[in-house]
Amino acid sequence: MAAAAVTLQALCRFCRVLLFLFQFYILSGGGSLNLEQSQPLAQSIKDPGPTRTFTVVPRAAESTDIPPYVMKCPSNGLCSRLPADCVECKTNFSCVYGKPVTFDCTVKPSVTCVDQDFKSQKNFIINMTCRFCWQLPETDYECSNSTSCMTVSCPRQRYTANCTVRDHIHCLGNRTFPKMLYCNWTGGYKWSTALALSVTLGGFGADRFYLGQWREGLGKLFSFGGLGIWTLIDVLLIGVGYVGPADGSLYI
């Protein structure tokens, strides 16, 4: 019994020494290293990392807008009579100028037309004259007008106009083109009124005042029509149309 008690006391002392050494190891910094090593692990476990956000883009609705050329295209009309903006034709620029020619055409999307038997048709043949759009007669296109050029001048002045082919006329090339035209516009002055004023009140410069030429009108007024000579000359010049409005326009 005495030997067992001595062995038990020795074992207890050994355990106390181990406990003391363990406490000393922790207090000396060995445990803090393990704690620091365990913290990143804990953070790596708790930190879910950068979050990713996904934006759901709704699908764009299909466009239901009607093409602008559809407004010019009569519904269920004859395909051969559709405006040029409503069809696409396979033209051939090697045709003989001025000769009749046929081209294969197809109606554009959203355009409906029929043939001679009132059956729906997409492909058809169109008959036209082989010529470019700028070679058309003046009645087949419309041009912009200019009010900044002199219509009464020698030689006659020209201006650059932008011309557009009428809808139902078919031709080769661009349907909008520039063209040099003679000045041809009016400011509302009447030739008959100017001539009547020149005959009756020309000695007082009424004809020149009416045409907007106030300097010449003052000259005639204070010279009594150039003692009648200027009056007679103006009657002849206005009568033949040589003297016109000061803004350069034509008589009505």
Automatic annotation (TrEMBL):
Transmembrane segments: 221-243
Domain TM2 as annotated: residue spans: 188-235
One cellular component term from this protein's GO annotations in UniProt: membrane
InterPro entries: TM2, TM2D1-3-like
Subcellular location, record wording: Membrane
Keywords: Glycoprotein, Membrane, Signal, Transmembrane, Transmembrane helix
Membrane protein topology class: Multi-pass membrane protein
Predominant place of localization: membrane
Protein family: Belongs to the TM2 family.
Protein name: TM2 domain-containing protein 3
Gene: TM2D3
